[in-house]
Write a structure and sequence with these properties.
Distance between the termini: 29 Å
Strand content: under 5%
Number of helices: 16
Helix content: 55-70%
Strand order of the largest sheet: 1-2
Radius of gyration: 26 Å
Order of helices and strands: EEHHHHHHHHHHHHHEEHHH
Largest sheet: 2 strands, antiparallel
Number of strands: 4
Structural class: mainly alpha
Shape: globular
């Protein structure tokens, strides 16, 4: 029997096939504080700054709201899109340890450069004190280049950290023992707890220092935290389990497509599951999949011709010409996911508005706490999104799911796609509520202004806490849809593509960020010359942000209709072991996955 000690496990992998295979020492819980510490300090250093970046660009770099919002959308989009490249390089060339180490250093350099832009006066424009920022001098080419260099380092850092951090932590536990499996579950629990903790601290204390004390100190603190993050990570360099890269599964997918194109003129047999090439590697971590009738063109990659060669071990001698049915079905899993994945683009546009324009709403609301003189930083209101998400998940998991399970007899209470769809409905409701609140805020600002926000306009007497309902709603919406997407990618991708599946989530965020920036630019361009005026004016009181929110809600309705069509068409992954694959959420040593 395997040892059940939690602090250290010294075992050989059960998958060992030769006596020469090196002994793997799993230190599990012993190195978990180092990995959790690295992750906590990294999030403390970057989350608050990224959420407050919009305020920094408009107040320190004197950018117009449209310009700053577009830059933030591009930055967020590029940051998320970089994860697919990070996952590919990690799986194919460098492995998780080297990727995380390089990315952690890049994140520190990015925070250091941002700190210098605030601390050194020559690296940002002179302070603007006019009411309207038409007379404010913007950043010079050199200042803008230095700023973009810092953001570029942060993109590199996020591209390497996001697809690898969870999987690297899971690598430290033996997946073949009870103590190792329990240790992985404990690691995931602590990971999400510290993630929430870092979000709360970043969106309150760090944002407060940046907005109300000093931008130089407010950015220097996250830079110092990134040093601690790197120190924690490299402290365990000699004891980490470092899984070597074994090649990207995208190469196997490319072989299937190329082989199918080469054999496109061939006719498929009537019973393909009996006559197509059906070799399965015994060392594969993937579950054996059943043949499906969707995307039958790809089945041609498994047609055996006279010129095809088979090795003694049963594998194809020319993998770019002949692929197995298993490889074909794995590619079909990937292709089937794409329409569902695309439905998340418009949905996430609603989420993005609660991270960008809600900050501008807060700036022109009454942010003073009752019976005090303390003004809540505009970016700190985002903490209510996290509160909505973290408070709703245990309620849903412990109360609602068991109740639903009694009626539906499904393990999750409802299917994954039903969960995602309900979150999309809440996203639409969020934008409608946001429009109503903005209309109320604007009317009160025009009728009973409380004061003047520099470079913007009149402050509404409406309390900033009126923004809490929409922020809480979008948090609950994410608890359904975003968490649902994570589960969907994890369960529906082949096991060896889970790192790619994890990247799909962030690439979707990237496309949504670009789409949001494009939508803002189009709306600004069209409405600025209309009789009604610019919907997205610098002074929200002169614009019609409420109509923009309703536009996003209308797009969400159309997108939800598209999602329903895709859901009705979608066919869940099936294997020989079960009718519908419900993959165990416990990682295996040889998998490359992101939960």
């Amino acid at each position: 029997m395997a040892s059940k000690q939690e602090t250290m496990e010294v075992e050989k992998s059960e998958k060992a096939t030769t006596p020469r295979e090196p002994q793997v020492i799993y230190r599990g819980v012993k190195v978990m504080p180092l990995i959790i510490g690295n992750e906590t300090f990294e999030k403390l250093g970057t989350i608050g700054t990224s959420h407050n970046l919009l305020v920094y660009l408009t107040t320190v770099f004197n950018m117009k709201s449209i310009t700053a919002t577009t830059l933030v959308n591009i930055f967020n989009g590029t940051t998320n899109f970089a994860t697919i490249l990070g996952a590919f390089l990690c799986d194919t060339y460098f492995g998780r340890y080297k990727t995380l180490g390089f990315a952690s250093v890049a994140s520190f350099l990015g925070m250091l450069v941002l700190t210098l832009t605030a601390a050194i006066t020559k690296l940002h424009p002179p302070q603007c004190k006019t009411v309207g920022n038409e007379k404010c001098s913007g950043p010079t080419t050199g200042q803008m280049t230095f700023l973009l260099t810092g953001l570029g380092f942060l993109v590199v850092g996020a591209g390497g950290i996001r697809p690898c951090n969870l999987a690297f932590g899971a690598d430290q536990f033996n997946p073949n023992t009870e103590s190792g499996k329990k240790g992985v579950n404990s690691f995931f629990n602590w990971y999400y707890f510290t993630f929430t903790f870092a979000m709360m601290i970043s969106l309150t204390l760090i944002v407060y220092v940046q907005s109300d004390v000093s931008w130089a100190w407010g950015l220097a603190i996250p830079a110092f935290l990134m040093i601690l993050s790197c120190a924690f990570f490299f402290a365990g360099s000699r004891v980490y389990v470092k899984v070597k890269p074994d090649g990207s599964p995208l190469a196997s997918a490319a072989r299937v497509v190329v082989a199918a194109v080469k054999k496109r003129r061939l006719k498929l047999p009537e019973q393909p599951w009996l006559k197509l090439f059906n070799n399965t590697q015994t060392t594969s971590v993937n579950s054996k999949l059943l043949h499906t009738d969707q995307f039958r063109f790809l089945d041609k990659a498994a047609i055996i011709e006279s010129e095809d060669e088979i090795k003694l071990d049963g594998s194809s001698a020319k993998p770019w010409r002949l692929c197995s049915m298993q490889q074909v079905e794995e590619v079909k899993c990937l292709v089937r996911v794409i329409p569902i994945w695309a439905s998340g683009f418009i949905y996430n546009v609603a989420n993005i508005q609660q991270q960008t324009y809600v900050v501008f709403q807060a700036l022109q609301c009454d942010r003073i706490l009752p019976s005090t003189t303390f003004s809540i930083p505009a970016a700190s209101y985002a903490v209510f999104t996290m509160l909505g998400l973290t408070l709703w998940i245990p309620i849903y998991d412990r109360l609602i799911v068991p109740t639903l399970r009694r009626f539906t007899r499904k393990d999750g209470g409802i299917t994954i796609l039903q969960r995602i769809g309900f979150g999309m409905i809440l996203g639409i409701v969020t934008m409608l509520v946001s429009g109503v609140v903005e209309q109320k805020r604007r009317s009160l600002a025009l009728a009973k202004p409380l004061g003047i926000e520099p470079r913007r306009g009149a402050i509404s007497p409406l309390s900033g806490f009126w923004l809490v309902p929409q922020l809480t709603l979008i948090g609950i919406s994410e608890a359904f849809s975003v968490v649902g997407f994570v589960e969907f990618y994890y369960k529906q991708f082949p096991e060896n593509m889970r790192s790619i599946g994890g990247s799909f989530l962030f690439v979707g965020f990237a496309i949504s960020s670009y789409l949001s920036g494009f939508l803002i630019s189009i709306v600004h361009s069209i409405t600025s010359g209309s009789s009604m005026g610019d919907w997205l004016a610098e002074d929200l009181n002169k614009g019609r942000l409420d109509l923009f929110y309703h536009l996003v809600a209308a797009m969400g309705v159309v997108n939800f209709g598209y999602f329903l069509m895709c859901s009705n068409w979608y066919k869940y992954k099936e294997s020989f072991s079960s009718e519908v694959v419900e993959v165990d959420m416990k990682p295996k040593q040889s998998e490359k996955h992101v939960v």
